[in-house]
Amino acid sequence: MGQTVKSVASTPVSELVKRLAFSLVAIPVVIWLVWTGGLAFALLLAVAAALAAWEFYKLAIDTGSEPLWGHGVVFSALIPLFVHARFIGWWAPPVSIVMLLVLELLCVALWRRGSEGKPLEAVGITLLGAFYTGGMLGFGYVIRYHQYAVAPLAGTLLLVLPLLLTWGTDSGAMLFGTAFGVRKLMPSVSPKKTVVGAAAGAALAVILSVVYVRFALQPYAKLTMPMVSAVVFGLGVSVAGQLGDLVESMLKRQAGVKDSSKLIPGHGGALDRVDSLLFTLPVAFVLYDVLLKAAP
Questions:
Q1: pTM for the whole thing?
Q2: Are 122 and 66 in contact (CB under 8 A)?
Q3: Residue 264 pLDDT more than 90?
Q4: Beta bridge partners of 264
């Protein structure tokens, strides 16, 4: 009990208030934009991708690298917009043209970095940052307009599920890890995360997945999963989200910073907010393709 009180007390009340205030505003806005879909949702993803990409490149710069960050930020933001354009039948560059980006970056590295400016590292980190942020967030749009989403609310409900499981995993891990966690999960990367917290987060995600499939996805989206599949989905998304969180913690630790930025009061940066989603969205998309069925 003393450990719990100490852990809670160590977080300033003002920071908790900032976190709560931001969440109360941000979560309804995100859900509304998911429901609205279309260009508005694509723009949300593009803005989030651009901010997350910039913070990713800032972490790389803090480690001594020199990525072509301007190109990466723009390309990251364009990915969700290209996905939107393709879904509504507008022109979007085919993969063959997108691949020319590699050549463009190599040419830019040739003129701006030269052989002494670590050009291979610059191009590699630039491409990684764009696909890690914009590429992974683009899966949110693909899920929203999934091929199985034929009922009016189906697309929204399909996307809300991995969002709910990601938030549920974070909340369960924080609450149970703070109260009962002793053994550290990966102290060299994230000293505060515990084995108990990780297990509790995963368990809560599984429960949420089963309940959501039964009482939201099946009656309102006309889609379902068998019980075992719902368990696998919840567990898979939860594990993916926790890995995404650990990966970003690894990057921040290498850069020697606590948060990717101070953009969001009480929450750190944009990358800190979407780090888990960068893993859960693509994993959820794959699991949907394997596990999802039309409701009887």
A1: 0.90
A2: yes
A3: no
A4: 268
